Amino acid sequence: xxxxxxxxxxxxxxxxxxxxxxxxxxxxxxxxxxxxxxxxxxxxxxxxxxxxxxxxxxxxxxxxxxxxxxxxxxxxxxxxxxxxxxxxxxxxxxxxxxxxxxxxxxxxxxxxxxxxxxxxx
Length: 121
Known about the structure:
By secondary structure, this protein is of the alpha/beta class.
C-alpha cells in the first residue's frame, strides 16, 4: 500500500512514519509539505492508494487541494488528519467526499486503528 502524506510539520511527518511502521501490512509513504509537491508526486506515482491530508497548509487549504484534485480528474481517497476539530469543518470535509476525518490530538491507538481500517478497505 502506498500513502501520500501532505503536511508541512516535519515532526508530524516523523510521527506518521512511525505510526505507519506500526500498522500491520507493508505501507510505503510519500511526503509532501505543500500542494505543489503533492501534485508532483501524484504525477509520477500512479499507484497511490490514499492521501493523508492536513487541511491547513501555507498558502492554501485542504479544501482547495481536494477541489483541484477533482478538477484534474484525480480520484484518490483522501483522509483528513488535522488539528481542526470544528464540527462545521468536519461536516464540510465529509461533503467534499473525504474517506475519514481524524484529529491530530486523538490518541495514537485510535489513529493506528483508523489507518488499519483504511488499509483493509
